Amino acid sequence: MNKINCTLLLCLCFWVAQAQNKTRLIMRGDDMGFSHAANEALIKAYKEGIETSIEILVPSPWFPEAVKLLRQTPSVDVGVHLCLTSEWDNIKWRPLTDCASLKDSNGYFLPKVYPDKSYAGQAIMDRRYNLSDIEKEFRAQIETAKRHIPRISHISGHMACTHFSDEVKALTKRLAKEYHLLTDFTLTEGGAQFISYEGEHRTALEKYESFKKTVQKLETGKTYIFVEHPSFDNAEMRAIHHIGYKDVAEDRQGVTDLYTNETLKYLLQERNIELISYADWLRTQNFPTTTDVVTQKPPRKNVWAFLLAGQSNMAGRGFVEPQDTLPNKRLLTINKDLELVYAKEPLHFYEPHLTGLDCGMSFGRTLLSSVPDSVSILLIPTAIGGSSIQQWLGDSTFRGVKLMSNFKEKLKLANMHGTVKGILWHQGEANSNDDEDIKSHSARLEQLFRIFRNIAHDESLPILAAELGSYSSNPKNWQAINAAIKATVAKDAYSSLISTQDLRHKGDQVHFNSEGQRAMGERFARAYLNLKPK
C-alpha cells in the first residue's frame, strides 16, 4: 500500500473510531444575503441558539451587509452557498459572470433548477445549460467569498444546484479540492446523514415537536446535518414569496424560534448530542482517539520540561493531521486528568470545542534532534484562548481556568516529573485593541516574566516569546504589540524573540495555519538551543 493510501486509511480509522463515541449534529442556517431579515436572524440563531454553520449567497442583494455581520462574528463557521437561481417573485439577483446559459431575458438567474409547472420553461434543466458557464460562475462566487470572508470552510448548493447532474456534482467536487474546501459530499461519503423533521412543521410549535422526534431518533456514533432557513416575520419578509411558498415570513420566523429554543438546547445536552460545524468536522477529523499513559517513567534527571503559555495561538487552532498524532517515546505531556502520557496533538485540553494543532509537538521533535538520546521532552500546556496579559497578572479566571494558579500547578507538576527548562510564550492579540493596553504591554510583559521565574525559583529560566502574525486586519496595533515584545526581550538576558512575520493564517486573520504552527515550533526549538545570556 502506498504512502497516500496509508494516510487516507489512517484518517478513516481515526474518523470511524471517533464517530463511534458520540453523536454529532451540524445545525446549518442557509441563505444569508437574500434579505436583511435573514441576515439578522441567522446571526441571532448562532449567537443565541444552536446554529453552527451559516451559508452565504454571494450574488444576493444583501451580501455586503452579510459580510459585515460575519466579520463582526468571527467565530461562526461560514460556507459558500453556491447559487444558480433567483427564485423569489419580488426580488431578483444576477450572476457574477457572463454565463448566458444560466440567465433569463432580463439578465437574472432563472428561478428554478428542476422543471416546475408553475414556472414552465424557466428551470436550468429545461434549457441547454453550459457546464463551462456553471464552472465560471461557481469559481467567481467562491473567490469573491474567500476574498471578503477568508475563513470560508466549505461549499454547499442552493436549491441543489451542486448536484442536479453527475457532471455538475463532479465539477463541485473538483472545485472543492482545488480551493481546499469541504463539501456536503465529503461528509456524507464519510458516513454523515442529512435529517429533517419527523412530522408536520408548518407552525413554530409543530417544528419544535417534529424536530424533537428527529433528535430522539439520532443514533450514537453518527454525524447528522440539519438544514433550515432562519428569518423574521416582518414587512420585508412578507413581501418575499414565490408560487407554492407564500407564507415565507411566518415559516422562517418559526425556524428562528426553533433554533433559539432554550428547551431544545437542554434536550440536546440530555441526549449527549455534540453540536459541531463543518469547520469543527475538519478540525477534529484527525484527532487521536486513544491516550497512551506512560507506565515506565524516564528518570527525573533526564526529563526536560517546557511550559506552553499565552492565548489561542499557543493553545493551537490549526488543523491536526495524522503526522501530528504519531507518538514518540521521548515526547511526553499530560492529559486533562494530569496523567503523564505520550504526546500527540492537540496538546491543549482546556477548550475542547476550539482547540487544534499547536506548536508543541513540532518544538519537541526539533529539540530531540539536538539533545542527548537519554533526554525526554515534557510539554506542559497552560495557554487559554483570548486571555489578556492583565488577566494573567491578576490570576483571573478566564474560560473556567484561573490563569496564574493553573500555571503554578502545572509548573509544580512539571518539576515532579523532570526539570523545567523553559517557557514558550505567545500572547498579545487580546491586548491589541486598546491604546492603553498597547502602551503598557512591555512593562506588563516584564512583570509577567519576573513572576514566571519567581514561581520557578529560577531567575535565569529561559523564556521564548513569539511575535504576533503579520496578517491582522488591524496591522498597526499588532505591530505595536510586536514592538513591545521585542523591547522586553531586548532587555531580558534570558529571553529570545521568535519571528512569525512570514507565517500565514488559517483564513481568519487571527490564527496561524498548521504549517505556521509547525514552523513556529521549530523556531522556538532553535531559539532555545541558540540562547546565550545577553
Please name the defining characteristics of this protein.
alpha/beta; disordered N terminus; 17 strands; 534 residues
Structure description:
- There is one protein chain.
- By secondary structure, the chain is an alpha/beta fold.
- About 40% of the residues lie in helices and about 15% in strands.
- The chain contains 19 helices and 17 strands.
- The strands form 3 sheets. Strands 1, 2, 3, 4, 5, 6, 7 and 8 form an 8-stranded parallel beta sheet that branches.
- Helix 4 links the parallel strand 3 and strand 4.
- The chain is elongated, with a radius of gyration of 26 Å.
- The chain starts with a helix and ends with a helix.
- The relative contact order is 0.10.
- The N terminus is likely disordered.
